[in-house]
Amino acid sequence: MEQAGEELMERRSGVALWRQVADRIRLGISNGTLGDGSKLPPEITLSQQFGVNRHTVRAAISALVQEGVLRAEQGRGTFIESRKRLSYPITTRTRFSTGLKDQTRARRVALLRHTIEPASGRVAEALRLEPGAPVLRLETVSEADGRCVSCGTSWFDATRFPAFADVFAETESVTASFARFGVDDYVRRSTLVSARHADADDLDHLKLSPGAIVLVTIAINDDLEGRPIQFSQTHFSADLVELAIET
Amino acid sequence: MEQAGEELMERRSGVALWRQVADRIRLGISNGTLGDGSKLPPEITLSQQFGVNRHTVRAAISALVQEGVLRAEQGRGTFIESRKRLSYPITTRTRFSTGLKDQTRARRVALLRHTIEPASGRVAEALRLEPGAPVLRLETVSEADGRCVSCGTSWFDATRFPAFADVFAETESVTASFARFGVDDYVRRSTLVSARHADADDLDHLKLSPGAIVLVTIAINDDLEGRPIQFSQTHFSADLVELAIET
DNA sequence: AAGGATTTGTACGTATGTATG
DNA sequence: ACATACATACGTACAAATCCT
């Protein structure tokens, strides 16, 4: 079998070869075409398959180990640390959404930062406020079973919900915080879903390696009178999460 | 203003600085935080903003010009050749979904392949058939304004919908084809959304370059009696499409 | 129990690409 | 266009852990 490698990698693309190899390995894992599902082929085999040096494969594997996707054991092989993707429900009635409750043991939401700022055009439009009106901006990271699954920024009308950040820090839940302000129920008005490469902030917050993908949701929640109360942009680690649309 | 750059670029990440800058410019364009929407700030300003050398910004811009995202004019500036992302609606009532109709001039769906095959476990479960029952598998690519936006595979009960493929080839529409079989309306029962790197087939069908991202939807449609009639997996080019969830 | 085969980990040297000034 | 510094990619060799006969 003198079958030379496939030469599918791009050499002067601004993306290092080892990163491209890492992406291919991630892909091979997610669609099950690489290895037997639990163990990766040896480095030599991979390097021939991808037409690169073994060191390049090693750099790729090392990044994926760092990320928790793989586990390497000297003399034995490289193994896939697979966990099922968490299914994050997107429902109309946010209140009745159990979120990830049933699928994880430990779920935590950390409050990264909160500031009062004047509403930018986009935020003002979403919350139906005057541009420049004071809004609370709340940045959070949520993790499940010790893995960072999403990071997000939300904006609230600072006049209607004073000291919302303190309440949130205590309850660790937007729903519970709204309840303190007399908003017992609210609905998801609109949701946009897109996907892109993780940016520097995502890499930091979600502990990803470059080239990783995030699912981006941009959503507006209304109270039951139809007034917008929350505008949010959330980035989910695409390797860990899928969105379940419940229509 | 001695405000030094933000140092947000990562230096040892396997992604060349100029490519990271290119990605940030693309992001800045898509959310409108860069320039005035049609013209980019001068290279010097950008290099200060990103904390990199002007040469690096120039490399980034040159790549984006190559890609058709920007247009540089000597002495005048760098301009944005942007098209908005297509917004693909995900609604309960598929029938009333206008799809991309309002957003594009020319929308075409090409039938790539169709075969009758025994239902695999996953397909059988989704369509509530016996495993091995004959199902029609239909592979399509759809393009809008000359750009390939999605490719997908759908499965239908071959017994209930004989010669569905021929009808589809004629009508180029699943909804219209169902109507020929007396199914005038149907609903989207469940939709899973995830994201991953494009695989070899995606690159081929959607004319993407390696490293590109696809949004993956896995959906089941029911007729009005609640019987599943279509199981589909669709890959959208994430650079061109966002999904608008209408709950 | 011993030894060879397999597989991951480490070290060096060289050439090319990338980023800055 | 040039010079410098660092990152990336390849090649080779060998060490360390594990597996199999």
List the helices and strands and how they pair.
The structure is a homodimer of 247-residue chains.
Chain A: H1 17-30, H2 43-50, H3 54-67, E1 70-73, E2 77-80, E3 86-90, E4 107-118, H4 121-127, E5 134-144, E6 147-157, H5 164-171, H6 174-180, E7 186-197, H7 200-206, E8 213-223, E9 228-237, E10 241-245
Parallel strand pairs in A: 3-10
Antiparallel strand pairs in A: 1-2, 4-5, 5-6, 6-9, 7-8, 8-9
Helix pairs in contact in A: 1-3, 2-3, 5-6
Chain A binds a DNA duplex (21 and 21 nucleotides) through residues 11-12, 14, 16-18, 42-44, 52-56, 58-59, 61, 72-78.
Which H/E pattern describes the elements of chain A?
HHHEEEEHEEHHEHEEE
Which chains make the largest contact?
Answer: A-B, 53 and 48 residues
Radius of gyration based on Cα positions of chain A:
22 Å
CATH topology of the largest domain in chain A: Chorismate lyase
* Major beta sheet summary of chain A: 6 strands, antiparallel
- What percent of the residues of chain A sit in helical stretches (DSSP H or I)? 25-40%
CATH class (first level) name of the largest domain in chain A: Alpha Beta
Spatial order of strands in the largest sheet of chain A: 4-5-6-9-8-7
Q: Mean of the pLDDT scores of chain A?
A: 87
**Care to count the β-strands of chain A?**
10
CATH architecture of the largest domain in chain A: 3-Layer(aba) Sandwich
